[in-house]
Amino acid sequence: MEQTELSTLMTECANDAIKTASEEFNVELDSSPSSIALVDDILLLFLDKYQDNALEDSSVFTICNIYGAYIGECYRQVAGGQWRYDESNPDAPFVVLDVGERSYAFAGICYERLVNDSSISVANYFNQALSHQRQ
Fold first, then answer.
1. 3-state class of 56 per DSSP?
2. Which of 5, 59, 84, 113 is deepest in the core (most CB within 10 A)?
3. What CA–CA distance (Å, rounded) separates 130 from 80?
4. What gap in Å lies between CA 74 and CA 14, rounded to an integer?
5. pTM above 0.85, yes or no
6. Average pLDDT of each block of 10 consecutive residues along the chain (135 residues)?
């Protein structure tokens, strides 16, 4: 996937996250770093509203990727970076945001909160990532 195509895709996914948050939960995301805390709530709202359907593979994939893109695009506004499509495991490709020497798997942290452990905070992950860039 070309870099321009991937960047466009991630921007569109982030916009889908904003639209979905508004339409599904009446939550307004404004692309600010402070709005990332709302993503923590939104992920759990999907579970509350859709129960087991939210955990179907296609739903998890979509939810995690659009909100991962949203978090990453918010991060890029503050710290820069470039999206990368990683195909090192052809059976499980994924997208990360590369910033300097670090890579951030924002969709992955959404997955952890949604599927594995609701106490994991995407906002904490985001803030830790920002603190690495400020060092």
1. coil
2. 113
3. 11
4. 9
5. yes
6. 90 98 97 96 92 82 96 96 91 91 95 95 96 75
